Records
---
Amino acid sequence: MGQWTGFLRRLGVAAAGLTVGVSLGVGAMVFPTGELFWGLAGFFAYPLPASLSAAPAAAPAPTPAPAATAEPEPTPAPEPFPTASPAAEECPPGWGTLLAQTYGQASGTGAVPLSSGSIKNYTSQPDSQVLAWAQAGLPFQIELNSDQPQVLIMHTHATETYNLDSDTYYDPEWGARITDTSQQVCAVGREVDRVLNEGGINTLHDMTLHDYPSYNGSYAASNATVRAYLEQYPSIKVVLDIHRDAIEQEGVRVKPVTRIDGQDAAQVMIICGCDQGGNLPNFSQNLAFAGALEARLEGMFPTLTRPVLFDYRYYNQDLTTGSLLIEMGGHGNTLEEALYSGRLVGEGLVSLFTSP
């Protein structure tokens, strides 16, 4: 769509303060702006859709994250295959190149192989123990065709979006955040929700913009949302927080991508936190879910997944024994690639829940 598209987009979106300060990984973006700026930005930016789901009323105070980290740490850089696809088109002046990269499974220190896929263990837990936890089986049972919700899909960083201009180059001034829920991770979550419900898994999808107008405190905001849903619907066993990653290497924006059944798909990474000082007492049950889902997805769709990231993270994963964060591609992927991955992840979840 070219330079004029990027210019017009920036004219409308950069004013919203959504393109400022990108760094790598979940929870690594900062909006260094004040309340007045956000107020003006909200006036000139995309209006919030009237159909956005609001969190149910009144919820208990959220569980605090460990004091050492107010917001989660950046995601470690993944380990690539030796080969990569360079950009095919010539970049417009001032724009950056995209690198299409298919990431392989974990190897070396901390690599925990599963029947399909793998886990990258960044904790002090022995790899043998991590494997035992990951192979323990689902810690919950999904009731098929229930009239009560079984799964909740939500987005702590709902404004995260993708490269909307091209699949070979990017505008470095584009921070890949937008409030239009049809153009960001909410659209991907909607696809997962659709496939789950069509498969007989009663699923709810919350599209609250927890990171807008303020990015800081977004995990506390999503904590309150999830707690309110769990109070209203105690039947919920699984909570999926769907994001997209951000990978850059020396000024080159990387898009994790693979080809599944003749179509490009954004690679997927599951993140599971480990207990640190008592903040995630049931982390091993989440890890059992992560291991089962990783093995099912990679078994059904080889190369779709990057290794599960198992680290000292929080991400509100104390709220259920089926709480995971899923990265659907990165800011270098196209929306179409991420939507396709949303469909594949939904199919994998249906398969796992109907035949564990």
---
Amino acid sequence: MKRFDVGSRVHEPTYGHGSVIAVEDAFTRIQFDDNTVRKFLTSLAKIEPSSEPAPVKRSRARARKTAGSTATKSAAKKTAKTAKTAADA
């Protein structure tokens, strides 16, 4: 039975190239280059070692918050809470 180490680069005929992220008793989890994670029964999987390097991950830019959007939401919550309290009284 083939045994791969965590971090090994592998190739699976259906899904392509990926990196081993976990090795359990009878299963191997692989994160493929398209960012999908799949779990394979190691004894049945057609996983082969690969020498192709992992693709470079690009950092995602965070969306900027505007000062007005946060203040508007909290003000709306306070107004709704005040109105509910006044209605109950």
---
Amino acid sequence: MQTKITFRHLKSRQDLQEAALDAIKKFERFSDLISSASVEFTADSKNKVQFTLVVNGDTLIVEESSEDFLKSLRGATDKMVRQLKKHKAKLIERN
């Protein structure tokens, strides 16, 4: 799986990188069809985290903003887990 972590309007932080990689590993438990994952940290008026996953040819995107990057990362991780479960259920329905 290809993994990309991007920091916009802020310097790269090791703690955020490690937390993002841990989140991506968590996603692998819910789907083994993930071909690429990207995480984008953006420091604007709020601290935004965006996950983009390509799963079996489908693109799943979630965003979360809050006053803290780690809080945004946890919220975005929870949203992506829900989307992965829903995506898996749809794949099962199709077959």
